[in-house]
Amino acid sequence: MSQSHLDLGWMRVLVETVRSGSFSGAATTLGLTQPAVSYQIRRVEEQVGFSLFRRQRQGVELTAPGFRLHEIARRAVDEADALVREHEAAARRPVAKLHTDYAFSSLWLIPRMGAFRSLYPDIDIQIIATQRVKPRDMGDSDIAIAFGERREFGSDARLLLPEVVVPVCSRDYLAQHGLGHEAAGLARSRLIHLDAAEQAPWFDWQAYFAAFGVSRVNVDRQGDFRFNTYWLVAQTAAEHQGVALGWLGLIDGYMRSGLLVKAGPPLRAPDRGYWLVGPRSAGSPGDRFVSWLADVHESVGAVDQA
């Protein structure tokens, strides 16, 4: 018996021979000649050192060791075929490919995805999340949801979530630091900032205080927190560590649960926010996803922007 590894190409020949009960039947199924099947079986018998079949008048019958080898081959062939079928089925499934940022995907989109799944269980969703999305970053995505102003996205873009920010903190932090709901009182608090690689395209604390004519110069305060991911901003505020600017629509879950409460007046930028770009083709999976997004936006818009 050879000590080298077996050539596994014989497995399907063996399995089909057993299924059909003859070399000629296997040859017909596999598109081979009967001598070619016989040759494959003979080669395997030479390698393993025992006979696989007893030749009968009406076909072939497995020997005892042949039966054991066939069981191994059958499982391998069936599992390989199942894997190929699964891959082919996945390749045929419609896919909606969405590009957005970390904050929108984690705080707005994911909590609502169950509703889409129940309506369209046959559509796969591929979410590509990055720190910030710009129109040129869409790549081969069918849809983008990106933060900015209309001039950045064109006339076909739809404003999905206008920018409305409100200072938020935990209920305990609000009580312990004697905060009211005036912007001036926030200047003495520990602030939680969302940093940007470039100049922030959204409201930051400097813009917020400027809008209300509040100065934060020469105030006695503890060190602020700075993060480059908005989820960390919201979570730090919920853990009683300071005051953050909360984007209504993104932090609604925190506010409904009572983890965050309002600590100051809101500030709005009606022409800035999250814009929906796409889909690139009508009738595509992305088109159905966009229609669903529009319906969700209409149904929750009043709550998100309250």
Number of helices: 13
What's the CATH H-level superfamily name of the largest domain?
Periplasmic binding protein-like II
Mean pLDDT: 84
The count of domains is: 3
End-to-end Cα distance, whole Å, is 80 Å
Please give the radius of gyration in angstroms: 32 Å
Strand-pairing-aware structural class: alpha/beta
Number of strand segments: 11
Strand content: 15-25%
Determine and state the CATH class of the largest domain: Alpha Beta
Q: Which regions have little confidence, pLDDT < 50, spanning 5+ residues? A: 1-6, 302-306
CATH architecture of the largest domain: 3-Layer(aba) Sandwich
Question: SSE string, helix = H, strand = E?
Answer: HHHEEHEHHEEHEHHEHEHEHEEH
Instruction: Assign an overall shape.
Output: elongated
- Approximate helicity band: 40-55%
The biggest sheet, with number of strands, parallel, antiparallel or mixed sense and barrel status, is: 9 strands, mixed
CATH T-level topology of the largest domain: D-Maltodextrin-Binding Protein, domain 2
Overview of the structural elements:
The protein is an alpha/beta fold. It is 44% helix and 22% strand. It is elongated.
Task: Identify the notable features of this structure and list them briefly.
disordered N terminus, 13 helices, nine-stranded mixed β-sheet, elongated, two-stranded antiparallel ribbon, 22% strand, alpha/beta, disordered C terminus, D-Maltodextrin-Binding Protein, domain 2, 306 residues, Arc Repressor Mutant, subunit A
Provide the fold topology.
Blueprint: H1 10-20, H2 23-30, H3 34-48, E1 53-56, E2 59-62, H4 64-92, E3 95-101, H5 102-109, H6 113-119, E4 124-130, E5 143-149, H7 150-153, E6 158-169, H8 171-176, H9 183-186, E7 191-194, H10 205-211, E8 225-227, H11 230-238, E9 243-247, H12 252-257, E10 261-262, E11 267-277, H13 285-304
Parallel strand pairs: 3-4, 3-5, 7-8, 7-9
Antiparallel strand pairs: 1-2, 5-11, 6-9, 6-10, 6-11
